[in-house]
Amino acid sequence: MSSLDFSTTLGNAWFPSPIFTASGCASSGRELAQFFPLHDLGAVVTKSVMSKARNGRPTPRMAETPSGMLNSIGLQGPGIDAFIAKDIPYLVSQKARIIVSIAGETVEEYSTLARKLRSVSGISAVEVNISCPNVENRGLVFACDPEASRRVIDGVRRTLGGELPIIAKLSPDVTDLVSIAKGVVDAGADALALINTVLGMVINLDTLRPHLGGKTGGLSGPAIRPIAVRAVYQVHDAMPKIPILGMGGISSGRDALEIIAAGASGVSIGTASFGNPTALIKIQDELKDLLIAKGFTSLRDAVGYAHRASEEE
Amino acid sequence: MATINKNAAQINSMVVSNKRVGQYHQLIINVGDNADACKPGNFVAINVGGESSRMILRRAFAISRVSTNPTFGGTIELIVAPHGQGSKWLCAQNEGASLDLIAPLGTAFGIPTQPVPVLLVGGGYGSAPLFGLAEVLNSRGCRVDMLLGASTASKIYAPMEGKRAVNSLRIYTEDGSMGQIGRVTDPIPELIADLNIAVIYSCGPMAMLSAINSITHNTQVVHQCAVEESMACGVGICMTCVLPVANENGDISMLRSCIDGPVMDGSTVQWDKVGKTL
Question: A27 — contact with chain B (CB < 8 Å)?
Answer without folding.
Answer: yes
